[in-house]
Amino acid sequence: MTAAFEVNEVRYAYGDIGALNGVSLEILQGRRVALLGANGSGKSTLLRLLAGLSFPASGNVRFLGSTLTKQRLEEEDFFFEFRRKVGVVFQNPDVQLFNASVFDEVAFGPLQMGWPAQKVRARVAETLQQLQIEDLQDRAPHRLSGGEKKRVAIASVLVLDPEVLLLDEPTAALDPASQTQIVELLASWKNTGRTVVIATHDLDALEDVSDTCYLLKDGRVAGSGDPLGALHDVALLEKVGLIRPHKHVHGHVHALE
Question: What are the backbone angles phi and psi of residue 21, rounded to the nearest 5°?
Fold first, then answer.
């Protein structure tokens, strides 16, 4: 199976603070991969490097064999090809919603790619229906609920039918009903051929949304494996800060998320 992404000894820092400290991993095409870790583990930074929004201080990130560099992404042909194939959904949907209506928001990407108007209208309608937000198409994005904004943000990326989807904390700060909708959508991408990378600290839906996972701590890969194995490795989950030991008065230790 071909690697969509290869990350080789990547280091990245914010000033004097190291965010990634020698990360190496491989993400295969067609797989759903979870990047697991507590806040500050480096998972969101790694996602930005995969998206070509930041670049490593040392080491390299390769997409389908091509090294992602600032200079490479300044090449027009490569830039448009990469942006067509790789879609990004940020943790806070407000940072990527800026149009006057939901319809305009979802149509923005295809219009930037030069699609003909008829194709844009048809694809937007199909995507709105897929995300069950067709009734929102005339609404202003900034007036929507958190769950609605998240689905619009995903729709604005899905409309281009990217080969790769990168999602940062897709269920964060959502009510239970909205979380369920997003999880069901992520689960539906199993065995579709689409590569999905999800940065998250949510263990509840891990088996539904991923085929494999990497666990990060302090900017390093602390472990990897299938979701079921990761969920049962209590020592590893404690080590990376995803669960904590809780001592009752009788002295036994229980893992709590």
Answer: -130, 60
Strand partners, 231: none
Residue type, 185: L
121 Cβ neighbours under 8 A, 6+ residues apart: 107
Of residues 81, 55, 36, the one with CA closest to residue 220: 36
The interaxial angle of helices 102-112 and 146-158, nearest 10 deg, is 20
Angle at 245 between CA 240 and CA 246, to 5 degrees: 150
Mean pLDDT across the stretch 120-132? 94
Q: Let me know if domain 3-256 sits in CATH 3.40.50.300.
A: yes
Residues 1 and 29: beta-carbon distance below 8 Å: yes
**Strand-pair partners of 66:** 63
Burial 103-133 (b: 16+ CB within 10 A, else e): bbbbbbbbeeeebeeeebeebbeebbebbeb
Q: What is the pLDDT of residues 1-39, one digit of tens each?
A: 799 999 999 999 999 899 999 999 999 999 999 999 998
Among 9, 52, 21, 4, smallest CA distance to 218 is for 21
CB atoms within 10 A of CB 28: 14
Domain extent listing, the chain = 3-256
Residue with tokens 């729709």: 155
Q: What is the pLDDT of residues 191-202, one digit of tens each?
A: 889 999 999 888
Dump the DSSP string for 64-88.
TTEE--HHHHTSHHHHHHHHHHEEE
Sign of CA dihedral 42, 48, 53, 58: positive
